[in-house]
Design goal:
about 130 residues; alpha+beta; 2 domains; three-stranded antiparallel beta sheet
Length: about 130
């Protein structure tokens, strides 16, 4: 879905190419203290892109020809929804709950866990 959004944006703006990092570049720039699951990184950074949009590899980058791939883009339908004048509530949750930093940055993990608990507490609706 993300690559489709990028392709749609690039096509609407008349861009010729967009560049996406290969798994090798991403791993080379990942904190060495983190455990990298190569299969997961391959799927996210290489396989997903090239499965839907043919791309040429140049060094450590995928180069996607926007024009060549324009028929692969699923274009979103534009809609306008009039505002009702009532408040809109948007809720965001850290679905990782700090797990992405456990064993690497315990201070950040603890902050994330505490922040999520604080947000959940604040969101409780009182009747």
């Amino acid at each position: 879905m993300l690559f489709n959004c990028i392709m749609n944006f690039a096509h609407e703006r008349g861009l010729r190419h967009f560049y996406s990092p290969t798994v090798d570049l991403v791993i080379a720039n990942t904190d060495p203290r983190r455990t990298v699951q190569r299969d997961l990184f391959d799927r996210v950074y290489d396989n997903t892109l090239t499965q839907y949009f043919p791309a040429d590899r140049r060094d450590k980058w995928w180069v996607v020809d926007v024009q060549r791939n324009k028929n692969q883009i699923v274009k979103p339908e534009r809609k306008t929804i009039p505002l009702s004048g009532q408040k809109t509530i948007c809720i965001f949750h850290d679905i990782e709950l700090g797990m992405g930093h456990r064993g690497i940055d315990m201070k950040l993990a603890a902050f994330a866990i505490g922040f999520v608990k604080y947000q959940i507490k604040r969101l409780r609706i009182k009747k």
